Amino acid sequence: MSLSEQQLIEALRPVTDPELNVSIVELGMVKGVTARRGRVSATIALTVAGCPMRDEVTRRVRSALLEVRGVKGVDVELTVMTPQELEAVRARVQGRSADPQAWQQGQAGGGGHSHGHSHGGGRQPLGHEEGRPNPFGPQSRTRVIGISSGKGGVGKSSVTVNLAVSLAAAGHDVAILDADVYGFSVPGMLGVRQDPIVDDLKMLPPAAHGVRCISMGFFLEDEQPVVWRGPMLHKALEQFLVDVAWGDPEFLLVDMPPGTGDVALSMAQYLPTSEMYVVTTPQPAARKVAQRSAYMAKKLNMPMRGVIENMSWWTMPDGSRQTPFGEGGGSQLAGELEVPLLGQIPMDPALREGGDTGQPIVTSAPDSEVGRAFSDLAGAIVKRGKARVFRSELTVR
Ligand code: ADP
Questions:
Q1: pTM of the predicted protein model
Q2: Which atom of ligand 1 is nearest to the CA of 349?
Q3: Sign of torsion over alpha carbons 380, 381, 386, 388
Q4: Is the CB of 310 under 6 A from ligand 1?
Q5: How far is 292 from 323, CA to CA, in rounded Å?
Q6: Distance between the two ends of the chain, CA-based, in angstroms?
Q7: What is the mean pLDDT of the chain?
Q8: Residue 289's pLDDT is what?
């Protein structure tokens, strides 16, 4: 039986680039694939020479080709894309037409591309530089989900990561923006080990467990404390939104800093379709604090869509429940805000361990009580549907 090139390309179509989550065939990474007496040679062009995912790409290509009947062996040769090919990839993942000139003009206007924060202070509408539109503007298909909390330590980042991975496991295309400038815990919890790839054209977010992630923490010196002035934070957020090849995700989860403040203000301006969810514990005191972030959302005209209660109970080996943080805080807060209580996440040391090792509990133990609580929560958020926001982009000057 002879193997046609078309047949082999079809076999490669389901293979996705681990960082961009898009088919390598669609991205134009397959430069050639031929077969001789059952032995296939495939040439794959990587987006950058030092691609940390080269072994993973090779593995995926090899296993997809070995599935084809009649294939006995596979040789994979890796090359690197030309700048023109890269440009086409960038256009593909950003859903724009390839126009290198427009991009370069945008670059000249943007400056400081490979740095997470710039020291400029102007409050301009997002994408004001030519050729760099806001990928999450009013027309975007993306549901932007802000995860907030009144105070730190209630499990907001753990909820963000496990919710994102649950959504991805249910087949959704998901990305996280870690904007919790006091913590930056998302990459570690998600298990992202490499920094984003930054080249002249774009910043590619690294991915783990099917979720792409950009964290401001990627761009800071290790362990350096940062004092974020509002305008600096605002500018950094703008860069993340326009300079990252987000790839038009269905969901963008934003891990917000606890409390109220500048990030919420920038989100209201840059992410006009943002919907807000608040994480709280069952304690009455936590509820009061969480209420403040809800009021802030209201002031900024961002729809508050639901409450997520974390650390709700602890299930004993005999099946009984202990409630070390009290009971009822989540449902009371939901009642006060007139939104649904969308989920209650029990306590489980495996959740913390999963966060520490970068293996979220929803992947290591999807059928555990906590794993099921997260998949139910993901289902409830999907069911809730995109918020209808009838307001124009807020401009803050
Ligand atoms: P925040 O983002 O609100 O500051 P984190 O997600 O960093 O909170 O969580 C704080 C700590 O609590 C982390 O060590 C985390 O692993 C742990 N934690 C969060 N939720 C749970 C839970 N349901 N069960 C057990 N540990 C949890």
A1: 0.72
A2: 25
A3: positive
A4: yes
A5: 24
A6: 68
A7: 82
A8: 83
Residues with Cβ within 8 Å of 338's Cβ and at least 6 positions away in sequence, in order, are none
Nearest CA to ligand 1 atom 22: 347
Atom of ligand 1 minimally distant from the CA of 311: 23
Higher pLDDT, 1 or 38: 38
Q: What is the pLDDT of residues 332-359, one digit of tens each?
A: 999 999 999 999 999 999 999 999 999 9
Buried-exposed string 83-122: b where 16+ CB fall within 10 A, e elsewhere: eebbbbbbbbbbeeeeebeebeebbeebeebeebbeebee
CA distance 71 to 82: 30
Report phi then psi at 166, rounded to 5: -65, -40
Residue given tokens 């989900």 in the structure block: 145
Please choose, from the candidates 196, 129, 208, the residue with its C-alpha nearest in 3D space to the C-alpha of residue 168. Answer: 208
CA 71 – CA 213 distance, rounded (Å): 36
> Could you report the per-residue pLDDT of 206-240, keeping only the tens digit for each?
899 999 999 988 877 666 666 667 777 788 888 88
Please indicate whether residue 217, judged by its CB atom, sits closer than 6 Å to ligand 1.
Answer: no
Q: Which two tokens stand for residue 120?
A: 């400029």
Query: Taking CA 174 as the corner, what is the angle to CA 168 and CA 180, rounded to the nearest 5 degrees?
Result: 120
Cα 342 to Cα 344: distance, rounded to the nearest angstrom: 7
Coil, helix or strand at residue 105 = helix
If you measure from the C-alpha of residue 302 to the centroid of ligand 1, how many angstroms do you get, rounded to a whole number?
A: 26
The two tokens of residue 272 are: 């006009």
281's tokens: 């514990």
* Torsion angles phi and psi, residue 284, rounded to 5: -60, -40
Contact 91, 102 (CB under 8 A): no
Name the residue with the closest Cα to ligand 1, atom 4. 153
Nearest to 307 by CA among 273, 332, 288: 332
